[in-house]
Structures are given as structure tokens and as C-alpha cells.
Amino acid sequence: MRDILLQGFLRSPLTEPRPAADDSELAALSAQLKRGVDKTFGRSLAIRHVDAGSCNACELEIHALNNPFYDLERFGLKFVASPRHADVLLVTGPVTRNMREALERTYAATPAPKWVVASGACAIDGGFYRESYACVGAAADVIPVDLHIPGCPPEPIMLVKGLLALLCPEPANLSILTVPHPS
Amino acid sequence: MPTLSEIRDPFPEMDCRPWPRRLIAAPAWRALVEKLAAGELSLLGLWGEAACVHMAVLEPSPYSVVVASLAAEDGGFPSVGRRHPPAIRLERAIHDLFGLRAVDALDDRPWLDHGRWPVRAPLGAKIPALASPPAYAFLPSVGQGLSQIPVGPVHAGIIEPGHFRFTTGGETLVRLEARLGYTHKGVEGLMAGATLDHAAKLAARCSGDSTVAYSLAFAQAVEAAQGLAPPPRAVWIRALMAELERIANHLGDFGAICNDAAFALMLAHCSVLREHVLRACASCFGHRLMMDAIVPGGVRVDGAEHAEIILRGLVATIRLALPQLAALYDNTASLQDRTVGAGILKPELARRFACGGFVGRASGRSFDARRDLAYAPYDKLSFDVPVLQEGDVNARVWIRIREIEQSLCLIDQILTETPSGDSYAETATPQAGEGLAIVEGFRGDILVWTRVGSDGAVERCHLRDPSWFQWPLLEAVVEGNIVADFPLCNKSFNCSYSGHDL
Ligand code: SF4
């Protein structure tokens, strides 16, 4: 273990730089937002992920957000275990009929003010499953959605941009993210 | 008891490739069930259609596959699960989707149908749904001082939805009953009538972590149905992708299992290696998970020009790091204390359920479709199939480590031996036919059976995830363990919800 820890010290960090303020995808996501997170919320958000019937690839990429490359927590964004602790619900999947009630109840259990991010083609409009007897379709058909992050699945860097857009709806405000970044 | 050839020969053979399908009668069906119950055959799959049921079984030494079909009489068929429990949930699913009843079944509760769909038997008689969903009858647990912990469908972590009903006596788990079906998306319903292109996309999304394996199984089944062979180069590139997928998932699991034993350092290191794999896949094949790269007819992406350099570099990186991490795992007493002896799956149960992948191989079941059904190009590659007998969480970790090493060797061989040429061949005229494929995904053997119409569209497609034969065993494995070890046992199984619920 000592060797591995020592190597970690000596090696330069793997973490990616945060997306630049003029990033076009970030700007597009911000423009889409009707309602960003209030400044009074500070710079930190607690996220609760809800799988509403995804194929599980969306989850794999959400997991990647916690790896040392993306290290989401450096932006003040962290995943929590209960909707009662959450500011943001990150919804994936085409809302299967078997999951609809669970999604509604999770939303109801999240204290206001709260934001909902629909992540991935399925959550945006039902994706490939739109026509199925077993699916409702868009997450927005079930609960109010504030932001859509496109992709199948959205790549981690896209998820980072989406969540940053939520945190600072004006791209120019990205500079408030005074996150030290290893250069 | 009749021999298998007696079951085979008198019955008409349907044109299913590469393994013919026999239309058998009820006595022969029962005889097959007895052979399953006696352990002479393993169950590979049991699925329905509007008016009949199909069963695929595996015959050992040498391995061969037998597919049998039985016409449903009065909407029913003789239960397989009554004599051979691995079939129970499959029968419940057949009832939910097609309305066909397993006669004399031990368990006739619904499984995928939670009473929320607009119709019952959506792929069969399409009966209007009941006005309100009936309550699900969990199995009773009676005893002094027992308590219940209901968990899910929304879990605490970033994972798929499912419900677990724990019964505990103090800290010890007395019974676990899972209720699944929450992610049922109606994939087989959407497949019926879909074009091959569209159906391939649906197949790729049955279980996102196995997208390559599912695409491969679907492509092989369609090619078998249509009597076509993909270009040789495509076959090799497919195997390359399949091994990359296996490595990425095993690395993710290795880290996540250790993390569930509160050893976060391993997760950090494994997730870095996993990210390296996904980035290499993105540079070589245009998608981090290689989704939609494999299609009937070949592969959509041939691999970037510099793919060989990138992948050789990746193999070297993992070869350097993995032994260090394996040693760290082996030398960390606090970690071993959690994994050794936890969640033991008895070899007998693994055999009975024909449980595939690392779960089966950690419990003495030496079956790997790559070796034992030897589909191309694995017939030309040399590799070992690691097997352990202990069946605990530790054994499932070691099988993964050993399989990563084997996959690295396979990638070396594939990079050296892949022929040049085309990697995709357009189908000239659509052919009707029926095909079956069994492919080794990272979590075990995936079965895909499909019938393609003369218009080139899918008439019916069934996809069976390895998790069908692993989920029930998780319930057996956790018995007698403490509640706090459930996440560890569960992660070491890492069953798919989406692949199972479909
Ligand atoms: S958006 Fe794509 S990756 Fe995400 S759940 Fe849907 S099909 Fe899977």
C-alpha cells in the first residue's frame, strides 16, 4: 500500500480542467435553463440520482463522475443517498410504468427548492422506448424538469457541463467557481 | 427415461440455425424437464410466443445445444419450474408477457407485470388491465424476533431499481426476497416488427454494461437466421471489443467491491484504469462503451488508424498496474476479513442453476461459451478459463482479476492476427430464417433467439440475460450473513436489472 500511496504523491494529478466559460455546449445548456440555481444556494448542490428504468449505461457514466478524472466533488457537487438530502434529482431512463410511482414519490420526498435534471435520450423523450406499452416516456411527463442533458449515454464531461450550467446559469458567471485546479 | 436422441429424432425439425429446433409433444417436454431436474442437462432459456413455448438446454461433454418447442394447449404448458427451480421466474415472465400458464407451477405470482401496464399479456392476448394494481404477496417469514427491512426500488447509491425484502433475526439475514421488473421497458414487444437496424439498437441497450456482448449475440443470431457470414475481419474486431468491454467491467467491479468493504483507494485506482479503457475505446471505435458498433453484417467502425498503438499502450498500462492492485487486495487484512468466507455460493447450486460468468466459475462451474461453444474467432485463440471452488466474495474477485489477465492476452493475440479486408458486408436481399446465438458477456452467457421475416424485419426476438440464473442465487448466498455484508455480496454478483427486466 505504501508504494501505491507514494506513487500517488509523486504523480501529477489526472483531473481534467474544468470546462471553459466560453464552451459552446455549456452555453447551450445554460440557454436551455429556465431557472438556474439561486445564488443564495451557495456553490454546492446535493444530487440524488433516480434510475427510472434506464439500460444502465447512463449509470456507468454517472459513476465515472466520481473518478479522479472528473472528480465532481471539486465543484461542490456531490451525490447523496436520500432524496430528503437532495437539491437536485438526476433522472435517467424512459420512466417505465413500473417506476412511475417511485419517481413521483422520490420527487415528493425532495425538499423545495429543488431542481430536476433529465439525463440521456431516454429521460428526455423516452428514447427508443417511447412507443412501448411499458413506458411513460419523458421524465417531464411525470415531474417538472429544469434541464435536459443529451446523449446516449451522456459522456461524463457533458454531465459535468450540465451540472455546472445549473450551478451558474450565466456562463460568464463560471468564474465564480474559484475551484483550484491543478495545472 | 428416454435418451436425448429419442426426444430429438421423432419430432419435426424447424429451420433454426446453427442449432435446429424441434417441435415436441408434452410427454417429450416432460422427459426433458426430468433430465433437467436430474442434472443431466442445463437450462439455457425458456421463453414464449403467442401460442407456444420454447426451451433451450445445454448438453454436456461435448457441449451441444438442444432447442425444443411445445404448442400451448388451452393456454398452458407443463411447468418446468416445478421440477427445476431455475425456470420458475422465466415461467412467471412468460405468463406476464404472453398469458401462457405453467400448469402445476409452484409460484404463480406475477413477476414483470406490476399491474401498471395498460394491458395484461401485452405480447399475447392483450387483456385489459385490472382497475388497480394488486398488492404483491411476499413470501411469509414467521419466527420469534424476526423483523423485516424493505429496500428500494430507489436505492441509496447510483444503481438500478429493484426491491429487496430482508427478513432478519438480529443482525443476521434469515431471508432475502427480491422483487424485480421495475425497469421492464417492453424490449421484446418493441423488437417485433422492427427493422434490423432498429432492432440492433434495441439489443445494444438491453443492459448497457454489456452493450457489446448483446450487439454481438444479436448480430450472430441474425446472421445465423439469414445464413450469412460476416467478413473475417469483422469477426476479429468484434472479439477485440468484447474483451475490452470485459476488462472495463471487471475493473469497475473490482474497485466497487472493495469500496463496499470501505476500501476506497482501490475504487480510485480501478476507476482510473477503467477510464483509460473507455477513452481508448472512444478513440478507436468512436464511443466510450462501443454502443452500436457491432451490427448484423459486420462492424460499423473498423477501428481508427492508430488503434493498434493505442490498444497496445492500454494493455501495457493495465499489465503494469494490475499486479500491484491485486497484491494490495491480497495483503490488506481488513479487506480480506470482509471478502473471504462472505456470501458463499455452493458449487452444487451454481451447477443446478447453470449459473454463468464469474459467479459460476468462482463456484466450480467451468463453462465459458467462448471456449465451450467455440464461436469464431475464439476457436483460433488460446486462453484459460479460470475456475475456483470456494464460491465466496473473494473467489469472485479473483476470477475477475484472472479474467482481466486472460483478456489482455487475448487482445495481444487479436491485435497480431486480425486479417485485413472489409469489416462490413451489406445484405443484398433480405432472407427469412431463424437463428440462435450464445455469447459470453462479462457477466456470463447471453442467449439471443430471433426469427427474421422475408421483408428483413424482426418477427420475434428473445434475449436472455445471464442474471436470470444469478439473481435467485444471490438470495441463497446472503442467508446467514450479516445485513451489512449484503452490499458486498450483491456487488460481487453485480447482476443486471435492465437485462433481466428487459
Ligand atoms: S439514454 Fe441511452 S444509455 Fe441512457 S438509459 Fe437510455 S438507452 Fe441507455
UniProtKB/TrEMBL annotation, chain A:
A GO molecular-function descriptor: metal ion binding
UniProt KW keywords: 4Fe-4S, Cell membrane, Iron, Iron-sulfur, Membrane, Metal-binding
Pfam families: Oxidored_q6
Cofactor(s) needed by this chain: [4Fe-4S] cluster
InterPro entries xref list: Complex_I_20kDa-like, NADH_UbQ_OxRdtase-like_20kDa
Claim: Cell division is one of the keywords in the record: no
Residue ranges of domain NADH:ubiquinone oxidoreductase-like 20kDa subunit in the record: 55-166
Family label: Belongs to the complex I 20 kDa subunit family.
Full protein name: Hydrogenase
Organism: Rhodoblastus sphagnicola
TrEMBL record, chain B:
Pfam family, any one: Complex1_49kDa
Gene3D superfamilies named in the record: Cytochrome-c3 Hydrogenase, chain B
Keyword field contains Oxidoreductase: yes
Transmembrane segments: none
Keywords: Oxidoreductase
All residue ranges annotated as the NADH-quinone oxidoreductase subunit D domain in the record: 269-426
SUPFAM superfamilies named in the record: HydB/Nqo4-like, Nqo5-like
Lineage top rank: taxon: Bacteria
Biological source species: Rhodoblastus sphagnicola
Single Gene Ontology MF annotation: oxidoreductase activity, acting on NAD(P)H
Name of this chain's protein: Hydrogenase expression protein HypE
